[in-house]
């Protein structure tokens, strides 16, 4: 009854909705922490520039948070609507983790977001800072639960299978499963880096307009510090995560490397820089290889061996070109971003950080680099997990709901159209906001004020239809 | 191990609580959108939206909790009902996205305001109708084979589910009107007193029809309600129903500002209790009980710790938030203190 097409559409739908969604939580994780730092520095130093930056970025945070909320509602229901096999077999574990996310993170964020967005003029500075910290911590708690759940699907632990269902044995082992610490750190750093390039790009944009603008200089400087500090750490964490994948998900790692198996007369695994992996002939065409380098970073020995794809049954291979290429996009952008960070440090040393217009322009171009790398990384890890939904234990084909092609096609079209519209509105609005001068008025609202919104988007007090009179 | 045996029943009530919180709280928020077509002036619509603006976000979070809780505590029910109600549920989340977006952008635009008005109102109505259809679909039952939904894509579609969809629109409409009576004054308040009456009468009729239709279409439910000695003590349900309807309508005529809202909530709770009576101990009629659908006791007991610690905190914040935003909303201004 379940045609392959319904499964393909369901997979595409999940990939589409979750890729769309993940951008905004990453946005919120990074920006909430940045706002916490800005407000903390303002309280500590009393410098107005931090306060101005806080007010500038909180409006953008509000829009991104709102988009995260509406696209997140879809995710909570999709596990059941499209993946009922998975929900029924693994709900004892993943359903519980999701519920804890709602209870500990969603309500915490909702609880303090209102004060954070609109409470500046009605609560003490300390209480307001406390609210900002709670929202920032809420985004991190949320990341913790959802990555515990995802990591458990990648490297399941602490369970037993009873009548085909996954039942918990040890919650500690379930949450702190083998890949969880690496994955959590990798994701949170990715969110911080994405936002630092966003902030850097916006700072660069404003420096191009006026290189004496103190707020633009400050945000540009902070972003460049973040880039040069966070990227080396991220690359080390990524390397450790890769070794963890080699240990627990060797087929995924072989696909990431595009490594089919040892060639006759060859010892060691080459680093394949580029090439066209071909699953039918189990070779990589036009491969540009550096001998033994992958052995070096994977086994820390020149002639160390890893398992090639050919040593796995054909029906346990992920889609090799997808994993191979998405991994290269992520790593390539990571290296490029590291280069930007180092360049920034060099220019700072030469006292040219605020003078080099070409570098400011470059930061505007690389503004989305972190987000693209982040999505590419998720494609690598989720695509590389295939054909499993729970690695090595449950296949994706068994996880799908018994749905008809027509139903999934209809819902998929609905999501594509609706997301295109709301993404369009959101991006249009964020673009308008980042172009404004980074000096803003204290946001109004709350009881006793006109419009008293406690909701995210309404932190933005500007008319969409610029030219016309705002209604009051 | 009677504690383990009882956990699923406790969980049924905890999930029922989250659903009740959602239905009542987002019920009046969606009701405001349902009433939009009956109120034309722009500044009146501002007041209506302002009355729910500070709280609708939190209200909707209860739906996420209900869904996630079902997933964690009764994964089988989650895995059967969500694919079975696929199309109405997808329609509901899409409508809720539009409702949320309209909420945010209506205030920020002048030129496209009529568009966002229509999106807000249409989104609210479609979301409500879809929820009512899901309710009807669940009451009429779904086919399950081997712990999987085995019916078609349109099994939920029936005159009965269309009727429950309509009934819920009326129900949320009444909740919206009685909420707005509390939050407004003067001419606008009179408008909602005027609107509340037909909504209350039509809802009462619709609930009566559903209450009669359900046992007639379903012999198992008929046996629960119409056999001795059940029939005697269950007779209290229709009596309570009639008393509530009478006092709501009386309250509307005599202008009992706050009590109408409280009694409308009571009417919803009564309906939910009736549903539990018709279902318990089944969670997917005709054969799957709450115990069979429950996740392992290790899952349910781990979850219950978090629930018991965090729900009171969440309730405290919610209460605080409503207190902060209490009072009448006036035309051309925000909250008055």
Automatic annotation (TrEMBL), chain B:
Q: Name one GO molecular function term.
A: oxidoreductase activity, acting on diphenols and related substances as donors, oxygen as acceptor
Query: Where is it chiefly localized?
Result: membrane
- Where do transmembrane segments lie in this chain? 12-39, 84-103, 115-140, 160-182, 194-213, 233-253, 265-284, 304-322
Question: Which compartments is it annotated to reside in?
Answer: Cell membrane
Listed A to Z, the keywords are: Cell membrane, Membrane, Transmembrane, Transmembrane helix
PANTHER family (alphabetical):
CYTOCHROME BD2 SUBUNIT II
Q: In its UniProt entry, what is this protein called? A: Cytochrome d ubiquinol oxidase subunit II
């Amino acid at each position: 009854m379940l045609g392959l097409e319904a499964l393909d559409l369901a997979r595409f739908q999940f990939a589409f909705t979750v890729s769309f969604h993940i951008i905004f939580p990453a946005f919120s994780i990074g920006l909430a922490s940045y706002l916490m730092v800005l407000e903390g520095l303002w309280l500590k130093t009393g410098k107005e520039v931090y306060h101005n930056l806080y007010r500038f970025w909180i409006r953008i945070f509000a829009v991104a948070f709102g988009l995260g909320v509406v696209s997140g509602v879809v995710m909570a229901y999709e596990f059941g609507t499209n993946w009922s096999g998975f929900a029924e077999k693994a709900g004892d574990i993943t359903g519980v983790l999701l519920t804890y996310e709602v209870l500990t993170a969603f309500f915490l964020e909702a609880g303090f977001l209102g004060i954070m967005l609109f409470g500046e003029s009605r609560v003490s500075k300390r209480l307001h800072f406390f609210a900002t910290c709670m929202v920032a911590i809420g985004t991190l708690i949320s990341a913790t639960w959802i990555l515990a759940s995802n990591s458990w699907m990648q490297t399941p632990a602490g369970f037993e299978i009873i009548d085909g269902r996954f039942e918990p044995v040890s919650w500690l082992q379930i949450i702190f499963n083998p890949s969880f610490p690496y994955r959590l750190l990798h994701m949170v750093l990715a969110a911080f880096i994405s936002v630092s390039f966003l902030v850097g790009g916006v700072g660069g944009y404003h420096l191009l307009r006026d290189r004496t603008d103190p707020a633009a200089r400050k945000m540009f400087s902070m972003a460049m510090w973040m880039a040069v500090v966070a990227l080396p750490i991220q690359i080390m964490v990524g390397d450790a995560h890769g070794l963890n994948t080699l240990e627990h998900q060797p087929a995924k790692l072989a696909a990431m490397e595009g490594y089919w198996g040892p060639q006759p007369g060859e010892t060691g695994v080459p680093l394949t820089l580029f090439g066209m992996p071909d699953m039918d002939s189990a070779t990589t065409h036009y491969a540009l290889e550096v001998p033994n380098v992958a052995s070096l970073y994977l086994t820390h020995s020149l002639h160390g061996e890893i398992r090639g794809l050919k040593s796995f049954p054909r029906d346990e291979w992920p889609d090799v070109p997808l994993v191979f290429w998405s991994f290269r996009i992520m790593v390539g952008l990571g290296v490029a971003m590291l280069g930007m960070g180092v360049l920034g440090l060099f220019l700072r040393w030469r006292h040219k950080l605020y003078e080099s217009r070409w570098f400011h322009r470059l930061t505007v171009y690389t503004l989305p680099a972190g987000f693209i790398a982040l999505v590419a990384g998720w494609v690598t890890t989720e695509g590389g997990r295939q054909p499993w939904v729970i690695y090595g234990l449950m296949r994706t084909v068994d996880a799908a709901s018994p749905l008809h092609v027509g139903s999934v096609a209809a819902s998929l079209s609905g999501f594509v159209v609706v997301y295109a519209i709301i993404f369009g509105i959101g991006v249009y609005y964020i673009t308008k906001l980042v172009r404004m001068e980074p000096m803003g008025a204290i946001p109004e609202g709350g009881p006793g004020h006109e419009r008293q919104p406690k909701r995210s988007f309404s932190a933005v007090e500007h008319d969409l239809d610029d030219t016309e009179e705002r209604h009051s | 191990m009677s504690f383990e045996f009882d956990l699923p029943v406790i969980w049924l009530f905890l999930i029922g609580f989250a659903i009740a919180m959602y239905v009542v709280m987002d019920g009046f928020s969606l009701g405001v959108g349902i009433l939009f077509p009956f109120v034309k002036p722009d500044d009146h619509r501002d007041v209506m939206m302002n009355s729910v603006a500070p709280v609708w976000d939190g209200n909707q979070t209860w739906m996420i909790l209900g869904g996630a809780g079902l997933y964690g505590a009764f994964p089988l029910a989650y895995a059967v009902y969500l694919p079975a109600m696929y199309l109405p549920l997808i329609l509901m989340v899409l409508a809720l996205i539009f409702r949320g977006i309209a909420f945010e952008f209506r205030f920020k635009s002048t030129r496209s305001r009529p568009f966002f008005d229509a999106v807000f109102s249409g989104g609210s109505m479609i979301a409500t109708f879809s929820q009512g259809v899901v309710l009807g679909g669940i009451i009429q039952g779904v086919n399950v084979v081997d712990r999987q939904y085995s019916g078609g894509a349109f099994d939920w579609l029936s005159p009965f589910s269309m009727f429950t969809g309509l009934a819920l629109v009326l129900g949320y409409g009444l909740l919206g009107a009685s909420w707005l009576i509390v939050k407004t004054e003067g001419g606008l308040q009179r408008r909602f007193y005027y609107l509340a009456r037909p909504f209350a009468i039509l809802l009462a009729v619709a609930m009566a029809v559903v209450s009669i239709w359900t046992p007639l279409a379903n012999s198992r439910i008929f046996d629960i309600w119409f056999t001795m000695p059940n029939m005697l003590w269950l007779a209290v349900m229709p009596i309570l129903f009639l008393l509530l309807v009478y006092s709501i309508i009386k309250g509307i005529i005599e202008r009992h500002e706050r009590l109408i809202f409280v009694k409308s909530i009571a009417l919803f709770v009564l309906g939910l209790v009736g549903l539990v009576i018709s279902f318990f101990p089944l969670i997917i009629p005709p054969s799957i009980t709450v115990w069979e659908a429950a996740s392992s006791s290790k899952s349910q007991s781990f979850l219950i710790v978090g629930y018991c610690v965090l729900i009171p905190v969440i309730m405290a914040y919610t209460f605080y938030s409503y207190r902060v935003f209490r009072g009448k909303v006036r035309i051309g201004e925000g909250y008055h203190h």
